[in-house]
Amino acid sequence: MTPRFLLLLALLFTPIAVQADEGSKQLQLFLKNLTTLQADFQQTLTTPELEGTFITNGTLYLNRPGRFRWEYAPPNEQIIVADGNRVWLHDVELEQVSHRSQHEALKGTPALLLSDTSPVDRHFDIRELGEKEGLVWVELLPKQKDVQFNSLRLGLIEHELRRMDMSDSFGQVTRFVFSNITRNTELQEELFIFDPPSGLDLIGDL
């Protein structure tokens, strides 16, 4: 083989290095001009106290700024709605509705990252993690101290959010895998309005 041909093979089969700030760029491009988002998700929860992993599935609806809806499918059916003013949690099995001021409920949370339109570094410190499992990863560390999680890791590809891994101070890890993602399509206004069903226990601020 000629030296030129060997050089060509080396270029073809050598992995392309991920730029040092590629994760931040992917995240910025994902959030740029994002108005609505719909995606299916699978959520897994791993906790040190209990053996095994708990898996739930559902659908996310997002309408920026400030509104979202998470629907968890049976048998663990729950609906979480942020209407721009309050966050509502409807536990269908328990026949219970809880609600809280949205400003207080979302401070320093992953939901704030998705629903808020302010710069990411306003609420989080950003750390590049490089490429793994075919995704480019970035870690967000909340600047606010009194929050429920320590670290949020985001896996992105082609400016889409595919994974979100959250670790909390109790050693629990919650992982979201997103699929069937549609971006900036019209969503029904009713998705982001919650009218508590009559006859259910209604609990004030959580």
From TrEMBL:
<keyword id="KW-0574">Periplasm</keyword>
<dbReference type="Pfam" id="PF03548">
    <property type="entry name" value="LolA"/>
</dbReference>
<protein>
    <recommendedName>
        <fullName>Outer-membrane lipoprotein carrier protein</fullName>
    </recommendedName>
</protein>
<dbReference type="InterPro" id="IPR018323">
    <property type="entry name" value="OM_lipoprot_carrier_LolA_Pbac"/>
</dbReference>
<dbReference type="InterPro" id="IPR029046">
    <property type="entry name" value="LolA/LolB/LppX"/>
</dbReference>
<keyword id="KW-0449">Lipoprotein</keyword>
<comment type="function">
    <text>Participates in the translocation of lipoproteins from the inner membrane to the outer membrane. Only forms a complex with a lipoprotein if the residue after the N-terminal Cys is not an aspartate (The Asp acts as a targeting signal to indicate that the lipoprotein should stay in the inner membrane).</text>
</comment>
<comment type="subunit">
    <text>Monomer.</text>
</comment>
<keyword id="KW-0732">Signal</keyword>
<dbReference type="GO" id="GO:0042953">
    <property type="term" value="P:lipoprotein transport"/>
</dbReference>
<keyword id="KW-0813">Transport</keyword>
<feature type="signal peptide">
    <location>
        <begin position="1"/>
        <end position="20"/>
    </location>
</feature>
<dbReference type="InterPro" id="IPR004564">
    <property type="entry name" value="OM_lipoprot_carrier_LolA-like"/>
</dbReference>
<comment type="similarity">
    <text>Belongs to the LolA family.</text>
</comment>
<dbReference type="GO" id="GO:0042597">
    <property type="term" value="C:periplasmic space"/>
</dbReference>
<keyword id="KW-0653">Protein transport</keyword>
<dbReference type="GO" id="GO:0044874">
    <property type="term" value="P:lipoprotein localization to outer membrane"/>
</dbReference>
<keyword id="KW-0143">Chaperone</keyword>
